[in-house]
Write the C-alpha cells for this entry.
Amino acid sequence: MSFTGDSTGISSAERIPLSQTLDRGLTVLETIAASAAPVSLAVLAAELGLPKSVVHRLVATLCDHHLVTSTRDGYALGPGAQLLGRRTLPMLQRIARPEVGRLASAVGLTAFFEVRDADRGIILVSVEMRSAHSNAVYEVGDEHLLTRGAPGLAILSCDPPTADERPEVARARAQGYCVTRGEVVPGQTVLAAPVTAADGRAVGAVAVAFRDEPVRPAHLREVLASARTLTERARAAQAAGTVLPGGGAAPR
C-alpha cells in the first residue's frame, strides 16, 4: 500500500492544523535549549520575529511549568525540562557509578559526580567513605549554584570566559581542575575536574571531598584519571545518540 504523507502514515490532507501557541512555545523552548548561555527576551523576540509582549507570555507560561527559569542574564532551561529528559540520566548514572566507586576506593575519600542543570549542579552519583580524612555526606539530588564549590567552578571553566567570572574559574580552565575549601560544606575541601561532551562543553564534574587539608598528588592524579575515563564514556554514549546535559547532541 502506498500513501502520500510522512512516516506517521497521516496524509497532508488529514493533518490537523498546528496549534500556533503551542508551536511558538515549543520554539521558544528549543531556542533556549540550543543556547549555551541564558537568552534574553529581546533575543527571543528577534529570533522568533514576534513582539516582546507575546514572547513574554509564552516564557511566563513555560516558567509556570518549570520548563524555563529566569536568571539575571536571561532565560535558561528549568528543572521541569530536566525532568522531562530524565531518560538520559540513567545512562549517565550507569556510566558514572562504577568509576566513582573506583575513585572513592582508590583514594579512601567520598567521591561524587554531578551534572549541570542550567545555573546549578545536581549530584547524580555519590559513594560515601568514612575515615579520618573524609566524613562528608553528599546525597544524590543535592544541588548548589555552579558559582559555588569546586564541581560547579570546574563545569563553568569549560564555558567561554566572561568578564565577571571568578578567578578560580579561569584558573581551573588553565589547569584542568579546581579546588575549593568550605564553600558548600563547611570544613570540607573539594577537588573536582570537568567531564566534557564532544563539543568541549561540560556535562558535569567528578570530585572527591575531604577535611580541610592540602590536596595530595595521588588525589589529583586519580581525579584527573576519572575525569578522562568518564569523558571518554560520555562521548561514546553521545556518539551513539544519547543527549547529554549541558553538552547537547553529538556533532554531525
